[in-house]
Specification:
8-stranded parallel β-sheet, binds zinc ion, 12 helices, TIM Barrel, 278 residues, alpha/beta, two-stranded parallel sheet
């Protein structure tokens, strides 16, 4: 059976992107798995530090492994991990990939931390390591304006970073923002994506893609994006669905939460259709 590295190579060959969806409970998991099954495409379940604390890291890994035992191409990524220690914990728990996020730190420190995680992952097996360079904010809310300190990644810096760290995947800052800015700004910088992809020669990951238009997303995939993260849109859909579910006066959680699952599933299906359009 194909592992995550194989699926990323598959996506590279087909010029499509694999959807990465953050979850914090079994409802989110159900929505993502059902959408993946419906379309027969691979997906990555993302758990941030906060999310994995809520659902339980080992529990989340177990859910994904159960799905895989049933021949479903479902993978788990330890999203935005801010310390080497937590990164090692996630690798030990058996995640398929990990994001070591030292993007808010100076270049040298980012390299040092990322390198240490890459080295550790290599001793443990097939966990892929993703590094980040260029700050894109840390929110997953709807924002009034572009957050302060956001800066685009320079292709030369990116090349140096990937060369020094040996990461398997690279997440640049190319006009993408964590959270959603009400005005729909900024736009994705497609030329920058193309240049960074040429410079780093590893697959690129796009974070903070909630709120970008379909046209921008398709152009970004064409330019070399192979994994796309969606979180904020999913959270909004969940909340709206559960609000509706609660209106019925139902007390059984699986009944009033079901609308939340349905709403999330719609978002995931739409995104997966777009990401796998080729
Ligand atoms: Zn992210």
């Amino acid at each position: 059976m194909k592992n995550l590295r194989d699926w990323i190579a598959w996506a590279e060959g087909k010029k499509v992107a694999i959807g990465h969806f953050n979850i914090s409970d079994s409802e989110g998991f159900k929505a993502v798995v059902e959408a993946s099954k419906n379309l027969g495409v691979p997906v990555i379940i993302g758990v941030s530090e906060g999310e994995r604390e809520f659902i339980g890291l080992e529990e989340a890994v177990a859910l994904v492994k159960t799905a895989r035992a049933n021949n479903l191409p479902i993978f788990i990524n330890a999203d935005h991990t801010y310390s080497v220690e937590k990164a090692k914990m996630a690798i030990d728990a058996g995640v398929d990939s990990i994001v070591i996020d030292a993007a808010s730190k100076p270049f040298e420190e980012n390299v040092k931390m990322t390198k240490e995680v890459v080295k550790y992952a290599k001793t443990k097996g097939p966990t892929l390591v993703e590094g980040e360079l260029g700050f894109i904010g840390q929110s997953s809310k709807v924002l009034d304006a572009i957050p302060k300190g956001v800066s685009k990644t320079d292709p030369k810096d990116a090349e140096e970073f990937v060369h020094q760290t040996g990461v398997d995947l690279f997440a640049p800052s190319v006009g993408n923002i964590h959270g959603m800015v009400k005005t729909g700004e900024p736009k994705l910088d497609i030329e920058k994506i193309r240049k960074i992809r040429e410079a780093v020669r590893v697959p690129l990951v796009l974070h903070g893609a909630s709120g970008n238009t379909d046209e921008e997303i398709l152009a970004a995939i064409d330019a070399g994006i192979r994994i796309i993260h969606i979180n904020t849109e999913l959270r909004l859909a969940y909340k709206e669905g559960v609000k509706e579910g609660l209106k019925s006066g139902e007390v059984a959680p699986y009944k009033f939460l079901a609308e939340g699952v349905e709403e999330m599933k719609k978002v995931v299906l739409n995104k997966l259709k777009l990401f796998n359009a080729k």
